[in-house]
């Protein structure tokens, strides 16, 4: 995975701000929080270690479970595009996009794009969104909002009965 910078000169600001410390107190660690895929946790940990080394400032990495946590004391967060847009639309505390992953593969076209894939079993007769009306959906986690906000899944207009999370039997929608 390659990471490209979206905001010029932001890293210089981060370096200079990180060196302002209150004399006599240990520095508060920079708090990093991820809301993204757990299989990439190693990458977020790598970024935390890189920042610690580069800035000479401690970091802590947490796994977020609710986007409301962004309103707390989080210095850097790994989030999907839709929650970022909704967060800024609601005029919540400012989030500034710094970087976005540029994944390798023809599908991505060398750009920082995100896809939400809807999959069914290979042997399933379902082959269109219309076929999915009235069905139950399963999403990876409560914070995976791409599917949650899809018009086919929300409310009576969408016609879908339930939105489930792996490992839970409760109705979520």
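Q: What amino acid sequence fits the structure above?
A:
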């Amino acid at each position: 995975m390659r990471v490209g910078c979206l905001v010029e000169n932001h890293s210089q600001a981060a370096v200079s701000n990180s060196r302002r410390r209150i004399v006599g107190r240990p520095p508060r660690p920079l708090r990093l929080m991820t809301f993204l895929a757990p299989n990439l946790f190693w990458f977020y940990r790598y970024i935390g270690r890189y920042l610690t080394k580069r800035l000479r400032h401690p970091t802590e990495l947490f796994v977020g479970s609710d986007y409301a946590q962004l309103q707390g004391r989080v210095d850097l967060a790994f989030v999907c595009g839709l929650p970022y847009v909704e967060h800024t639309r609601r005029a919540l505390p400012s989030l500034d996009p710094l970087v976005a992953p540029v994944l390798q593969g023809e599908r991505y076209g060398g750009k920082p794009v995100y896809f939400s894939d809807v999959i069914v079993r290979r042997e399933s007769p379902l082959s269109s969104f219309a076929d999915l009306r009235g069905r139950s959906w399963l999403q990876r986690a409560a914070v995976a909002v791409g599917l949650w906000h899809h018009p086919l899944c929300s409310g009576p207009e969408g016609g879908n009965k339930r939105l489930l999370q792996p490992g839970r039997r409760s109705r979520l929608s």
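Q: And what stands out in the fold?
A: Strands lie at 2-5, 30-34, 59-63, 76-78, 99-102, 137-138, 163-164.
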